[in-house]
Amino acid sequence: MNESKIRLGIAPIAWTNDDMPELGKENTFEQCISEMALAGFVGTEIGNKYPKDPKVLRPYLDIRGLSVASAWFSAFLTIKPYEETEKAFIEHMNFLHAMGAKVIVVSEQGHSIQGQMGIPIFKEKPVFTAQEWQDLASGLERLGELANAKGMTIVYHHHMGTGVQTTEEIDQLMKMTDPAKVSLLFDTGHLVFSGEDPISIYQTYQERIKHIHFKDIREEVAGQVKATDQSFLNAVKAGVFTVPGDGMIDFKPVWEAIKSSGYEGWIVVEAEQDPAKANPFEYAVKARKYIREITNN
Fold it and tell me: Which residues form the Xylose isomerase-like TIM barrel domain (predicted)?
């Protein structure tokens, strides 16, 4: 993108879903990254099919002009000893550092229901106790210190079905953590699905937002999910998420807020769908075209 400090990536979850590997099991790693590049993206996050040895992975990406933007890390700071999360985090961080990534996506999965097929995403959303909030905040700051020592930053991913989903919960986490140690990931789809105001969140925390996910929502599906008490995974299978330009979100004001804030970093298109219903390459091209239209880049 001509906004010289912003780069555009796409997540592999549209090709193969890590939470439901049966979705896209036929799509290979090489097909995925080739189609990303062909659609006009310059970055990727990491999926389960990607080689985890940097020496193996790098040549596959280099030849296609792709860089690693980041990768998801599951923390369990509210339910397990800190040391367990730290050990896994260091391994994850070192891999991303070797791949040249600057941010590490972290989401607390203690009590999360996002991976539970039979639990309603809205009705059974977890709520942290005061002690769990404290454990989460202090643990994230410690992880942030480890990342900072490597010249990296952790970006917290607010997420449906977790203890940090709503505006109030994002506010709480931001209030309890040091901005020098814990930054924020801004995900349009999760905010709109939850019923939050993405522009307000962006403007409130623009100085702490160091990573962005562009995800759209099919309004009718989202309404059905809430009305019929569906789980997060069933919502994904029903098609609640789609790429920018294909759903209910107007990304023009979102882009204007991002541009005017002076944001530097990645914008990653992420829209987990059933690839048998939504061809990943077709939707990647659709997303890139729409983003070009709203950004002139």
Answer: 37-293
